[in-house]
Amino acid sequence: MKVLVIGGGGREHALSWRLKNDPQVSAVFAAPGNPGIAADGISCLELKTHEATVAFARAEKIDLVVIGPEIPLCAGLGDDLRAAGFPVFGPGAKGAQLEGSKAFAKDFMVRHGIPTAASGTFDDEASALAFIAKNGAPIVVKADGLAAGKGVTVAMTEDEAVAAVKDCFAGAFGAAGHRVLIEEFLDGEEASLFALCDGETILHLATAQDHKRVGDGDTGPNTGGMGTYSPAPVCDAAVDAICEREVLSRFLAGLKADGLEFRGVIFIGLMIGSKGVRLLEFNVRFGDPETQSLMMRWKSGMADALLKTATGKLKDAKPVFSDEPAVCVVLASGGYPGDYAKGFPISGLEAAAATGAKVFHAGTALKDGQIVNTGGRVLGVTASAPTVRQALDIAYRGVDKISWQGAFCRRDIAWRSLAREK
Ligand code: AMP
Ligand code: GLY
Fold first, then answer.
1. What is the architecture of the domain spanning 326-421?
2. Which fold has domain 2-94?
3. Which one of 74, 280, 290, 377 would you pick to mutate in the ligand 2 pocket, going by the greatest count of ligand atoms within 8 A of its CB?
4. 152 C-alpha vs ligand 1 centroid, how far in Å?
5. Which of 108, 271, 283 to mutate to test the pocket of ligand 1 (most atoms within 8 A of CB)?
6. Residue 347 phi/psi, 5° resolution?
């Protein structure tokens, strides 16, 4: 099987690395890929348009296209590839609205009985402000469209909520903020659930937990994710049973009732707390950096499961995951998630790999023969072992070999899981 992976972040490094090691796969290409992907012997290339992507898939006789990020999914790359006859892992533009519009997703959840926070959707500032005045704080303000993870404000005071609404309508998130969703604050512990879905079958794959805040102890501003571990122990058998009954089966029934096509992974953001299990959001792709942990645990049947999802035969797939936990520690550029300096040479990558950790690249580039930092989140140092403690020891040994000017990471990844392990 020849596979084309679309994207060039840490998630795509993890996906293409796992696919390359799958005995069913003869070749993997990544577009645009990154220097870490290339160093794993995977061909990276630029495909700037949908037409160029289709032409490449034809020329190389690609058997499966795996689309990593939400932006090409929402832009309909899946539709264009499918129209040209290629099996695609990832929904078309319509299905991608489940992530691309929070109002669309909320409407889907409510109509199909999926438990979620009570909310209102507003197209003008005055009615949004009136809703806040009526409901008070804490309250959560969300820009409707894609905002690279920055469009959500969990407001602990009414003033914060008012400011967030004003920002949205003033254009802080461009067109994504011209409609806002305001919802009830939910307390509890967050977890991510990943399920494959081809429109006929839904298959619970694995769970993970992210660390969204930049600082140890879950402090400081939100980021795209500073580290993950899988599985998420908060998703015990009782929570899993609720998810199967109230989330996954209702999601599948909702797709069918709405005639909404969906072939890919549905990544469900859960809040588990005093109100029970509630959905925060849908994403229509694998998580980043959750995938880095997941791929350490996916032992066999990955290419087959993705192809079967893409071709409507998911019921026959048999993906095998290891019970051993995996962790991923993100190394970021100094200043992230604010402004950061880039272009600094990164040292110690080989020494880190020698510790047994797998280093996934996210924001790196090759400059004059040197790997340098180019993004906010730069590397994901990942390991699996019989216990979370052991996996963390390997990952942090890897982290400690790597340096560049300003590099930093959180030192408390997986603290919840460690506390439970004790
Ligand atoms: P979302 O993109 O909708 O997942 O929101 C981003 C983050 O905001 C989530 O991961 C939560 O940490 C937080 N969040 C979103 N919705 C709520 C809510 N209703 N109550 C509390 N926190 C929330
Ligand atoms: N790590 C969160 C996300 O991928 O959306």
1. Alpha-Beta Complex (3.90)
2. Rossmann fold (3.40.50)
3. 290
4. 7
5. 271
6. -115, 160
CA 210 – ligand 2 centroid, Å? 8
CA atoms within 13 Å, Cβ hemisphere of 383: 25
| Ligand nearest to the Cα of 272, by number | 1
Residue nearest to atom 8 of ligand 1 (CA): 152
Q: Which residue ranges have their beta carbon within 6 Å of ligand 2?
A: 210, 225, 283, 287-288, 290
Amino acid of residue 346: I
Does pTM surpass 0.90?
yes
Taking the domains of the chain in order of start, what are their residue ranges? 2-94, 124-178, 187-321, 326-421
Fold of domain 187-321 = D-amino Acid Aminotransferase; Chain A, domain 1 (3.30.470)
Q: Read off the tokens for 97.
A: 């609205």
Give the ligand whose atoms come closest to the C-alpha of residue 290. 2
Which CATH number is 124-178's, of 3.30.360.10, 3.30.565.10, 3.40.50.720, 3.30.1490.20?
A: 3.30.1490.20
Per-residue pLDDT of the chain (422 residues; tens, 9 = 90+): 999 999 999 999 999 999 999 999 999 999 999 999 999 999 999 999 999 999 999 999 999 999 999 999 999 999 999 999 999 999 999 999 999 999 999 999 999 999 999 999 999 999 999 999 999 999 999 988 888 777 889 999 999 999 999 998 988 887 877 889 999 999 999 999 999 999 999 999 999 999 999 999 999 988 999 999 999 999 999 999 999 999 999 999 999 999 999 999 999 999 999 989 999 999 999 999 999 999 999 999 999 999 999 999 999 999 999 999 999 999 999 999 999 999 999 999 999 999 999 999 999 999 999 999 999 999 999 999 999 999 999 999 999 999 999 999 999 999 888 888 77
Topology agreement, domain 124-178 and domain 326-421: no
Distance CA(399)–CA(393), nearest Å, equals 10
Q: Are 137 and 182 in contact (CB under 8 A)?
A: no
Contact 328, 395 (CB under 8 A): yes
Which protein residues are within 6 Å of ligand 1, measured from CB? 117, 140, 142, 152, 154, 183-186, 190, 212, 269, 280-281
Pocket test for ligand 2, best of 230, 267, 286, 292 (most atoms within 8 A of CB): 267
Distance between start and end Cα atoms, the chain:
44
Nearest to 360 by CA among 269, 268, 290: 290
Give the list of residues 6+ apart from residue 367 with CB closer than 8 angstroms, or none. 343
